[in-house]
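FAQ: What does the model actually see?

It sees only this:
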Amino acid sequence: MASNSISVSLNPLNIRRDQFVLILKWMASIIQIAGYATTAFGMTPLNIYLFLAGLIGWFIVGIFWNDRAIMLIHLIALSSMIIGMNS
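And it is asked to produce this:
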């Protein structure tokens, strides 16, 4: 009996988990560095958005690595930024 099921890939680029985390951590790092640069040149609010994206990226890396220290520092930084933006 032939199977007529359709296979849907949740990973269309066929990236391994470790490759994904490697790409994510470098992208988050580059985005955070861009946040520092935009802060130096007074480019607000772009700097805040870049920092937020970098922090979220590194928090996700912490989740993948099950690294509570990385998750904690980035969660505190993210919370501080959100509180600061709302004050």
